[in-house]
Amino acid sequence: MNVSDVAKKFGKCLELVSMDPNFHNISVGLFLKNDILTIWSYSKKDGVAKRLNVIRDKMVDFGGLDTVDDDCKLSIPKGSLIPRPLKFLFVKSVEMDPSSVPETGEVSAKDNKSKLIFHIDGSLENDKFIYKVSAKGEHDKPILRIRAVVGGFVKYGECINNDIDSFYFPDKKAHDEYVRVLLPYARNVSAVENMLNASEQAGQMTTQTLGFAQS
Questions:
Q1: CATH no. for residue 16?
Q2: Alpha-carbon gap, residue 70 to 185, rounded angstroms
Q3: Rounded to 5 degrees, what are φ and ψ at 163?
Q4: Residues 6+ away with beta carbon under 8 Å from 188
Q5: pTM metric for this prediction
Q6: Considering only 21-25, 46-50, 75-79, 199-203, which range has the smallest mean pLDDT?
Q7: What are the b/e assignments for 157-175, b being 16+ CB within 10 Å?
Q8: Do 60 and 150 fall into the same domain?
Q9: pLDDT, position 166
């Protein structure tokens, strides 16, 4: 299929990974049409369909999405389409070790700018599922780092500030899987911006249209 055929069949390209490090550095795209997500590549290499389904299964396992009967497709719970965290989930699912399994239990991560450890807990409050960020460890003003993390969720998760230490997603629902996916990015916005810029440049270098490498 050419580019227009792909767009007609699968819809809008939400995100592109210019090189899949786990399968011959092929380009892989995530498309959306009528609440159905499709993972697609122009690559003709042997085993590409199996690889795309592995990525799909990672998005299910790490993002709480649902599979559909067709290969390489997923569905989004009604009313729960949030593009930015979905993009991060897709990139993570492509780049992670295929043997990776989701973490369970408390959502936490070490701060890479201090000795703090962030913890995130969620609860339903007045019809909103609120996520609160706390921190343990040594820091003169831990609230500054907590506010930075909340800001990261606002930036990368399309979240809304509830307070200086808390946020909620735009659909006001629980998205524990997205919180776990986004926390490593939310804790260091400047480094993630550099990473995204480098990724965008790599995509531009390998693209003539949507960025897909067909080998």
A1: 3.30.1360
A2: 32
A3: -160, -175
A4: 112, 113, 152
A5: 0.86
A6: 199-203
A7: bbbeeeeebbbbbebeebb
A8: no
A9: 98
